[in-house]
């Protein structure tokens, strides 16, 4: 187990700057996730921590020890890849034993350790199978056992769940979390799936084209996104273009959207600034439009789409000529079903935040 410190890390491939001065502190024993869209540099950053990629500038430390130029096999890391990367011509036992043999443990200790870790991932009965004789989920469990059996200082995982079907993915999340919580191995996990990131991590770093957009606990990122990019990425949110008109008091600002007035949380945005109001689907109230003109914090619109998802229904509502807002009704709230084309009022909560 080790704390990881990354300072001013940069990497280019040809003319493309892929990492642009990344600074990160990853606490000893924590589950840390790198989250971001395809091509933002997640794998490049993870492979730099592993030692497969040599950064152009910057420094990586494990527990204060500079490992920037230390080769992969001397960094004491375990790695799990999206495509498993098991040796196809070796049994599950031999795959898991691989790193232990390289470390020259004695035979009995290797047997004991392999059995222990196959048990932990629920593959106790599969030691003599070959990878081709396993399901995708079982292969990923074998890869996880192989990475953990060496009891690495750092566990690195690059989209380990993305080749699994939805149900299996959730089961594997639980396996990985249970193993991480009991071993307290410092873990860096890469995903582009925000739900995976929020549900598994102690802390999450959101990457935007080679730059860290924000680092925080899942709750901090969800409740206090630093900018529109983070708000859009974490949890489905509507970003409504607004202008900050005035400050009502310490905690409230008045913003405008066209003719509409919106009271929202004061996040330090200055009057006159153009910003985005973050309105989360689950926070918006939709109701059948009443005769009167819309009042403060109420936007008038028209339902243009309805998606029934069982536990909830998501409505798309067009307001004005070119803005669409998504809102959802939970089945438990027993609200009336809204029809396509129906005029509706959207109530924006005063707790909504504006980012500039
Ligand atoms: N070895 C390489 N040579 C040249 N370009 C590369 C190399 N590795 C990565 N890149 C480029 O660097 C950028 C970032 O790639 P990276 O694999 O880190 O992204 P990612 O965030 O992991 O994306 P994904 O979610 O698709 O896996 C991409 O534009 C990619 O094409
Ligand atoms: Mg990648």
Summarize the entry for a quick read:
With 356 residues, the chain is α+β, with helices and mostly antiparallel strands. 24% of the residues lie in helices and 37% in strands. The protein has helices at residues 42-50, 92-102, 107-120, 136-149, 166-183, 194-200, 218-223, 228-233; strands spanning 4-13, 16-26, 31-35, 57-62, 65-66, 77-80, 154-158, 186-191, 203-208, 211-216, 237-247, 252-257, 260-265, 274-280, 285-288, 298-308, 312-319, 323-330, 343-347, 353-355.
Q: Which molecules other than protein and nucleic acid are bound? A: adenosine-5'-triphosphate, magnesium ion
- Helix/strand class: alpha+beta
Distance between the termini: 40 Å
CATH topology of the largest domain: Rossmann fold
Residue windows where pLDDT falls under 50 for at least 5 positions: none
* Element-level helix/strand string: EEEHEEEHHHEHEHEEHHEEEEEEEEEE
Named CATH architecture of the largest domain: 3-Layer(aba) Sandwich
């Amino acid at each position: 187990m080790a704390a990881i410190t990354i300072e001013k890390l940069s990497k280019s491939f040809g003319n493309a700057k892929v990492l642009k001065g990344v600074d990160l502190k990853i606490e000893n024993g924590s589950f840390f996730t790198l989250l971001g869209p395809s091509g933002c540099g997640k794998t490049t950053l993870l492979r730099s921590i592993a030692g497969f990629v040599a950064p152009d500038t910057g420094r990586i430390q494990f527990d204060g020890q500079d490992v920037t130029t230390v080769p992969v096999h001397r960094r004491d890391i375990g790695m799990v890849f999206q495509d498993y990367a098991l040796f196809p011509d070796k049994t599950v036992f031999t795959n898991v034993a691989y790193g232990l043999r390289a470390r020259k443990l004695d035979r009995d200790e290797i047997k004991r350790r392999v059995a222990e870790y196959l048990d932990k991932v629920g593959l106790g009965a599969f030691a003599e199978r070959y990878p081709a004789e396993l399901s995708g989920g079982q292969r990923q469990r074998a890869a996880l056992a192989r990475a953990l059996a060496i009891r690495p200082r750092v566990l690195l995982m690059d989209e380990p769940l993305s080749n699994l079907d939805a149900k299996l993915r959730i089961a594997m999340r639980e396996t990985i979390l249970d193993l991480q919580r009991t071993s307290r191995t410092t873990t860096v996990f890469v995903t582009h799936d925000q739900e995976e990131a929020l549900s598994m991590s102690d802390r999450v770093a959101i990457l935007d084209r080679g730059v860290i957009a924000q680092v925080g606990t899942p709750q901090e990122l969800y409740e206090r996104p630093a900018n529109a990019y983070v708000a859009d990425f974490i949890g489905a949110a509507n970003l409504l273009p607004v202008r900050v008109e005035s400050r009502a008091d310490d905690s409230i600002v008045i913003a405008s959207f066209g003719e509409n007035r919106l009271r929202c949380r004061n996040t330090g945005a200055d009057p006159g600034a153009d910003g985005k109001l973050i309105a989360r689907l689950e926070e918006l109230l939709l109701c059948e439009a009443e005769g009167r003109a819309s009042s403060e914090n109420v936007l008038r619109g028209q339902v243009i789409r309805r998606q029934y998802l069982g536990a909830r229904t998501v409505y798309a509502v067009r307001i004005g000529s070119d803005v669409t807002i998504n809102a959802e009704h939970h089945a438990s709230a027993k609200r009336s079903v809204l029809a396509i084309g129906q005029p509706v009022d959207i109530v924006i909560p005063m707790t909504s935040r504006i980012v500039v």
